[in-house]
Amino acid sequence: MQVLGIVGHSESGKTTLVERLTQRLSGSGRVATVKHCTHPPDVDTDGKDTARHRDAGAAETVALTDDGEWYATGESRTLDETLDALAPDYDYALVEGYSDASIPKVVLADREVADPVVHRAPHGADADLDDIVAAMEERDPYITLETLVADVKRDPDEVYSGAIATFTGRVRAREGPEDQPTELLEFERYDEVAAEKMAALRRDLEARDGVHAVRLHHKTGVVDAGEDIVFVVILAGHRGEAFGAVEDGINRLKEEVPLFKKEVTVDEEFWAHER
User: Fold this and answer.
1) Binning pLDDT at 50, 70 and 90, where does residue 257 land?
2) d(CA 271, CA 70)
3) Are the beta carbons of 94 and 132 closer than 8 angstroms?
4) Fewest 10 Å CB contacts: which of 94, 99, 115, 233?
5) Helices vs strands, H then E, count in the chain
6) CA separation (Å) from 6 to 18, 153, 242?
7) In this model, does residue 184 exceed pLDDT 90?
8) How far is it, in rounded angstroms, from Cα 122 to Cα 110?
9) pLDDT per position as a tens digit, 1-10
10) What is the pTM assigned to this prediction?
11) Cβ proximity of 162 and 237 under 8 Å
């Protein structure tokens, strides 16, 4: 799922741009929208922002407040939890508001926001949709373990499968009680080489007897302690084939794909390959 934030002042045309992008993107995939609210909204009331999102073609609209209230369903969720829930079922998520979130953003008017920023425009009505869509598609998609599991379940050979095995790598906060806590890891990669290596690894694993589908994903950028880093998902005929492919998949990914890791602890920061 590609995620894009739209941020700006109250009169900068945020909802107008969400409508324009929803109309544009709904022709090539399913679109969900998320609205950041500072007070309880009138969900789906004619003329309100969430209703305008749906009228433009959004298949689902979520309205969130600062305290995590998810007004579309009455549940309490953070933005990350909401995106996690949307990711398996949607191709695009447009997030109106959340200027401090670490998602790629379009900035309207002169609003101060956190990086990354992919486009700026004076007003939502004036923003260049071609530039915005191109910039969004260049970003890594928002991938969760559930996204990859749902994807392999759609494989044509799913009818021959009796097992799905997965591996999730996380940022370990510390090695033991005396270890200095790790605050975050930061990952960089050689994009083209990494993509080629990942594709070759996937082909090798899928060529094995009994393995029907393979999905691999490794995050880049900053990943905080306790968060997920890497996923391996195997669809196979039997558990033995699935478990073997999972273990080989993560081992080879770490050995063969050019990824560079910086570790930030409470006392220092360093690149792992320099240690």
Assistant:
1) very high
2) 39
3) no
4) 115
5) 7, 15
6) 7, 32, 41
7) no
8) 8
9) 999 999 998 8
10) 0.78
11) yes
The Cα–Cα gap between 232 and 227 comes to 16
- Cβ neighbours around 166 below 10 Å, total: 16
Distance, in Å, from the CA atom of 173 to the CA atom of 177, rounded to the nearest integer, reads: 10
Q: Angle at CA 49, nearest 5°, toward 45 and 53?
A: 100
> What six digits make up the tokens of 31?
């679109």
Query: How confident is residue 259, by pLDDT bands cut at 50, 70 and 90?
Result: confident
Measured between its terminal Cα atoms, the distance across the chain in Å is: 36
Tell me the C-alpha distance between 70 and 233, whole Å.
30
Structure tokens at 23: 């109309």
Q: Does 112 have pLDDT greater than 90?
A: no
Average model confidence (pLDDT) across the chain: 88
Is residue 111 a contact partner of residue 9, using CB atoms and an 8 Å limit? yes
Give the C-alpha separation, 88 to 91, whole Å. Answer: 8
Q: How many CB atoms lie within 10 A of CB 11?
A: 9
The angle formed by the CA atoms of residues 2, 252 and 137, to the nearest 5 degrees, is 15
Give Cα 3 to chain centroid, integer Å.
7
Which phi and psi (to 5°) does residue 156 adopt? -60, -30
Confidence of residue 42 (pLDDT cuts 50, 70, 90): low
